[in-house]
Amino acid sequence: MKCASNAAGNRNSSSLEALGTHIAAGAVQNRPRVRTRLLAHLVDVGRQENHHFPIFARTSTEGEQAVRSRQVEECDSCHENPRASGHLCVVCDRKMLGPRLQELAVGSTPFTDIGTQFLSEWDSLNAARPQIKKVYQVLVPRDVRVRHNAYRTNQRATEEIRVFHSAQCICDMGTKTPALCNFKSCDICCLLKSSFNEFAFGDRFNTGRFGEGIYSYRNPSLANMHATAATSTPYRVMIACDIAVQSDFEVPDKESVFVPSADAIVPAFIIMYTV
Ligand SMILES: [Zn+2]
Ligand SMILES: [Zn+2]
Questions:
Q1: Helices (DSSP H) in 96-207: which residue ranges?
Q2: What is the pLDDT along the chain (275 residues), one digit of tens a residue?
Q3: Residue 118 neighbours by CB under 8 Å, 6+ apart
Q4: Who is most buried in 109, 150, 154, 259, counting CB within 10 A?
Q5: In this structure, which ligand is nearest to the CA of 89?
Q6: 57 alpha carbon to ligand 1 midpoint, in Å?
Q7: Domains of the chain (ranges, CATH numbers)
């Protein structure tokens, strides 16, 4: 009996030791556990002091702590909350009205990837090859992504295809920090701000062989024929986009690709180049 009791006592103390080791290990390896304990402590203190903690405080405090201790990447806009959607936190993502532009560093993997795609799809009888000078990534607002996803579901458009669209660019895109202009005549900026819902001078569509809609090209050298650069910039400007199409869609090589609705097309990159 005594032995049994001792044995039980030993078991208890050894399992307590094990628990201590486990917690210690957790404290080192599993920081969220520490955060949760700290948070529980703060909530307790708050209760004792009769503070009323709003229900969202828990998530936001935990998130902010994780950002401060560099366990997760910070939101690009508020620099406080963790990223949830692309480069933004949930709050900033919901507040974003227009697209955000982010310059890709020359030589970085995304810069090289989009450059390789642009040059390999460029098919022209003209021997002159384009030179990419700058690339901005386009981060579209949440409502644009929601409409695009709804279009994909409703139209059973399960495939995404990379296409290129160019048009008149009136502003000095690419010569300063990434920004869109407010000229009504700047097709490129109107298209980006509205995510293809509005062209220059308020026009709603391109008009082409399939009627009203949006026309782009698989081959950027064909899109280049629509590029008009302003005198204030040395660059031509083209938008790399993703269009949603049905799986049996055949992409024409030498002709434009038509989509009937702005919800079918999402801008992804702005490419500034010379030919
Ligand atoms: Zn934020
Ligand atoms: Zn512009």
A1: 109-121, 142-154, 187-194
A2: 444 444 444 444 444 344 344 434 434 444 444 444 444 444 343 344 333 333 343 456 788 888 888 888 998 888 989 988 777 888 888 887 789 999 999 999 999 999 999 999 999 888 788 999 999 999 999 899 999 999 999 999 999 999 999 999 999 999 999 999 999 889 999 999 999 988 777 777 777 777 888 999 999 999 999 998 777 888 999 999 999 999 998 888 788 999 999 999 999 999 999 99
A3: 130, 132, 164, 220, 240, 271, 273
A4: 259
A5: 1
A6: 15
A7: 2-95 (no CATH), 100-274 (3.90.228.10)
